[in-house]
Design a protein that fits this description.
Blueprint: E1 4-5, H1 14-24, H2 42-49, H3 54-60, H4 72-76, H5 82-92, H6 100-119, E2 133-134, H7 144-147, H8 154-166, H9 171-184, H10 189-199, H11 205-216, H12 228-235, H13 255-262, E3 263-264, E4 295-299, H14 309-313, E5 319-323, H15 325-331, H16 335-346, E6 351-355, H17 358-368, E7 373-377, H18 382-391, E8 396-400, H19 417-428
Parallel strand pairs: 4-5, 4-7, 5-6, 7-8
Antiparallel strand pairs: 1-6, 2-3
């Protein structure tokens, strides 16, 4: 697959970046401005980090107007590391327990990444048989009334509009929307997860797909069910007070009542098989021995910043980011997602951006500058890992570990978050580790 270079991004403003994206990817879905309200890049990330309140987060994070951090888009692209956010949060509180809820939520992201590193592309398939059986075959496509935000449910339609217009949703709204789609409308979870991934500026396959599996009950002990009482409590009744469906909507009732309406009570013929996910070994690439010459830093979706471990390890090396057509085809990122990504890249000096096959582009870049090795930050992404294996057939590929979020030496079971958290909670609540994490 041939590749070509895009115009230099460094220093371009949003309007100019939108023009670059439009010229390079004229079929990108989304509105003409690409304005999702969030600005990409390290400067915006650091400014947002300075505003967080860990204690308030712990008290109010479940409420739609709670003190959430909004840091996930920058974390997704490696502009902020989990360790950096954790260290900053702990430095803001007098008692570590005041930041514990925030740190544990960072732990979920580390956990998802580790599961992704172990399972690769299979996170797009049911990891376990569904914990509850649906009454009818699932839909393989998103319903038209959902995509047009015309379901007649004020809450659902509002969540859909916000997702489409801004590329972001509160985590509780994501869970409610996913649960309603899977368990009430009968949408196959993969269809919903793919739809989210198109639009979410923080769209990350590990957190996204595995969260949908958690809701669906294919990676959890029971399905997550959305009900009106929960919605009313955490939205201050904003959607229910004037809802024309009040008292007769699809999510009225407690968990057991909803489960009785939504699921087949007949037990499965066979018990659910036990699942055991062990920790993934540290990622390395079989490649020729390193040379003493220059290196090329290959920046990826998980490390689209000059603060990435690979860039920090080789501060003077040229940087290359490659827009992979396989990624574009798989995730169909909207213009908002792409512009946020390009804003992250535009802050990086000495960066070239190519469009095409990453293996060919990275190898050609290294040969053009006389580099005998390529440095890439650790990532659970199977697509990047496969390309790195290809590059490693010609030159040395150095995988630079990410700042460590926890002491991973005790992690031996990733089957459930609770098992992972019991083993790493103490170290995750301690700032300034010195060992590197293979996936965190």
């Amino acid at each position: 697959m041939p590749f070509h270079r895009l115009p230099t991004l460094h220093g371009l403003d949003r309007q100019a970046l939108v023009a670059v994206v439009r010229a390079a990817l004229p079929d990108s879905p989304g509105g003409p401005s690409g304005d999702g309200g969030l600005v990409g890049g390290r400067s915006a990330a650091v400014a947002r980090l300075a505003t967080i309140d860990p204690a308030a987060y712990g008290r109010s994070r479940n409420f739609l107007d709670g003190a959430v951090t909004g840091l996930s888009p920058w974390i997704r692209h490696g502009v902020l590391s989990l360790a950096e956010v954790r260290d900053h949060a702990l430095a803001l509180v007098e008692r570590p327990e005041d930041a514990e809820k925030l740190v544990s939520e960072l732990g979920w992201r580390d956990y998802w990444r580790r599961v992704h590193a172990r399972l690769g592309d299979t996170i797009s398939m049911d990891l376990e048989p569904p914990a509850a059986r649906a009454l009818k075959p699932p839909l393989d496509r998103m319903p038209a009334d959902v995509l047009s935000a015309s379901t007649g449910m004020p809450c659902i339609d509002a969540f859909v509009r916000q997702l489409h217009e801004t590329g972001w949703l509160h985590n509780h709204a994501r869970m409610w929307l996913a649960s309603w789609l899977v368990h009430v409308r009968g949408v196959r979870w993969q269809a919903g997860a793919d739809w989210f991934l198109e639009h979410l500026i923080d769209g990350d396959p590990a957190s996204n797909h595995l969260s949908w599996q958690w809701v669906a009950g294919t990676f959890s002990a029971k399905p997550y069910l959305f009900n009106r009482e929960n919605l009313e409590r955490y939205s201050a009744g904003a959607y229910c007070r004037t809802c024309p469906l009040l008292g007769r909507c699809d999510v009225e009732g407690g968990y057991e009542e909803l489960a009785a309406r939504l699921f087949d009570p007949t037990p499965a013929a066979e018990a659910r098989p036990s699942l055991k996910i062990t920790a993934a070994p540290a990622w390395s690439v079989a490649s020729p021995a390193p040379t003493d010459g220059p290196a090329v830093v290959w920046l990826t979706l998980d490390a689209a910043s000059d603060s990435s471990p690979a860039a920090a390890a080789f501060p003077d090396a040229p940087r290359l980011f490659v827009l992979d057509p396989a990624w574009l085809e798989a995730e169909r990122p909207t213009l908002k997602r792409l512009v946020f990504l390009f804003e992250c890249l535009a802050e990086i000096p000495n960066l070239s951006v190519a469009f095409g096959d990453p293996g060919e582009a990275v190898t050609a870049e290294a040969e053009a500058v006389g580099a005998g090795r390529v440095a890439v930050a650790d990532t659970p992404c199977p697509r990047v890992r496969r390309q790195a294996d290809r590059i490693g057939q010609k030159m040395h590929v150095e995988v630079v570990p990410c700042p460590r979020f926890c002491d991973d030496r005790r992690i031996d079971d990733l089957t459930r978050f609770s098992r992972y958290w019991r083993r790493i909670e103490k170290s995750a609540m301690t700032p300034g580790h010195c060992r590197a994490s293979p996936t965190g």
